[in-house]
Design brief:
- The strands form 6 sheets. Strands 7, 8, 9, 15 and 16 form a 5-stranded antiparallel β-sheet that branches.
- The chain is elongated, with a radius of gyration of 45 Å.
- It is of the alpha+beta class.
Length: 790
Amino acid sequence: MNPAMPPPQGSILPQAARPKKLERPVTFFEKGWAWAGLSAFIAFLFFLIAGFFALGFLSGVDDLRFGPNLRGYTFIGIVLGVVALGWMFLAGWYPLRKRRNVTGASMMTWLWMHVWFGFLALFCAFLHAGSGLVTLTMTSGKLLFLLLAVIVLTGVFWRLAYSFIPPQAAAQVLNYSQEGAKDRAEQLALEISKLTAGKSEGLSALKELLLQREVPPPELHALAQRIPPDEHRLIDELVQLAASRRRALARPPLQARFTARLQGWRKWHVPIALVFFFVLVVHLFGAFDVHRKVLPVGVATEGPLAAFRPSSDCRQCHTQIYDAWADSMHAHALTSPITVIQNNLDMNHGLGKLPAPEPRRMCINCHGPAVAAMTDGFTLPLGVERAKEGVECVSCHQLTEAVTPGGGAFPSVYNVKLQRGDVYFGNLDGPVGNAYHRSQKNDLFEKPERLCATCHMVNLDKDKDGRITKGVDLVLQTTVDEYREYQNKGGRDTCVGCHMPVIPGATEAANGAVAPFLQDYTPPPRTIHDHSFVGVDYPLDEVAKRDPQKVKRAALLKTAALFSIESQAVLRDVFQLRLAIENQSGHNLPTGFAFARQMWIELVVKDGINTVFSSGLLRAPTDDLCDAGTFGDLKNPLRGFVVGCTEVDRQLVNIQLKLVDQIATKKDNFGRNVVDEGGENVLIQSPIATGETYLQEPGAGGVARERPIDGANMGPLRPQQRRSYTYTIPLPRTLRTGTFTARLLFRNLPPYWIRGMAREQPPGSLPRLAPLIPNIQTVEIARVTGAFAK
């Protein structure tokens, strides 16, 4: 007996003499069910942990980190993402293990680990993404999850193929070697050739036929008759060899088919895994805003590479807030006709000669901080679609900390504190997760006037001493300083209280977001502020067709001042009337660019039918006030643009600063600067000044007008200040009784300014200002009426 052969059944060989089995016992960790159970237990633990955070059990500790949101950017989301990457790394160790075993574990152990760690990676990735998987937009995270799911499933199918295909292949093709089958066929052909070498022609003919096809027995019997009897013994062997050869030749196609079924999933599994890691890098860069923080801020103004998202992206969720903002002057800050033309004219004068980009772009920087950061250019429009958004959402909601009041005009002060990417700041507790941005609380929104101060102080430290001094530096707007004075006098209102009041009945900040597709769940009721930022300005080119803020503007102005009759008396043929204005706003009245605002008293006295006296009365809405500071100054460069005046209105009360191209400080008899009640220098027109201007020259400033009849100061009213103005009205001798109506009126732009700028507009410069003058609106703040008798 051949000792290499197994003993026959019933062998009486002793047990020790029998050959040992080549198999070894399967260990615990080589069993698939063991890894399935362990993986299920681990997955359940992670599910409990994720659920604990997602249900908000720790939201009381920190509602931003541990709030009831399950997303990739939350604390638990980041942890689960790291864990998922860990499982991927362990699963990916399997191919390395096949080349170098550094752990001692068997190939089968690592194979099961490869399969089940992939499942754990997919499950943790599912928990990591959380609500992000049900949003309506395609993201790199969703693509990454789909790729991982395909990798895991193709791996499972590949593993199942290894379980079911080999037994079938063993029964049909023995092995998968196509080259081996071809070699076997060639060997058999050689044996057949040797068997028939030197034999009869009949046997050779039978050989050729058998090499081509299988010969049926009847045909084989007929062919045998042609073969010599001494060669008949070779026929059976020849038939068997030919049959073996045909089977060998038939094996490669089957082998190819089984091999394809066995390795087909690999064609998907491995390449997709490589694509996955590329998308993973893209996803991580996007998740942490790496591309926006690393690339130059001006690389793009739109699309995924833009440092800041446009406000239009916010509309789908924050529909009510966006629509209110879209009607605001903030949204029109870079497209308003006055802004466009005034900025461009300034570039041809003093501002255009200043260093670039600071402070030459100071107008553009405040009127569009984000787009200014992403673009170049000194004239408007900037030539990009994004410029239509002006002061965007990101201007406030991505500002990391307060800046120096007025710092919005300077990129080195303001733009560097705008945080690029998808993190937005606010003051809501427990922000709801969503597909578009992360939310963080910022102390800036506890005192939002610090946000307003960014741009609602317009000044330039010309002597670079770190202080803004009237008469030395360029001072064009002081609204924030005025607000501080108001607070110091006990004022309780805020910028937000007046200009962003709470919207009655509105309780949803994201009223357009549908849970769970755009936000994770329905948020609790919120306090919603009006983002129309109502003020006194409006887009001059649009109000004739559409003016959604007209009612709001009028309502705001009616709260700005108290207008009353302080006294009245008739002395012989003279009626003396004293009217009082008290500032009820949180800043000067008017404020802002107070040289561009006109607040005046229109007084009409009648004898019953006929007008016996008037002051501040306009014959046409586009007429100008017959102010002594403009129309009465024969050297005033803007006098020629005044329409509707034939003589100076000597009793006119027109509270409007006068912008002159060169200012100086008023001196007392000892040569010392005269200061106002706020301790600031009183400005006057410099002797070398050309006169009034509509351009904000570096040496320009606003000076107070004087009322001709009594020399009263016509500068803006300080917070809570009350001023009285006396009218001395001569009456006809025949008049016995009369009536009067006094109205406190306001308009944000003087028509003569617009005419002057329109005259200077170069040909082709758009928009043309002259046709827009009829769109200037006059608003009645208050009115008083009375009667008198001699």
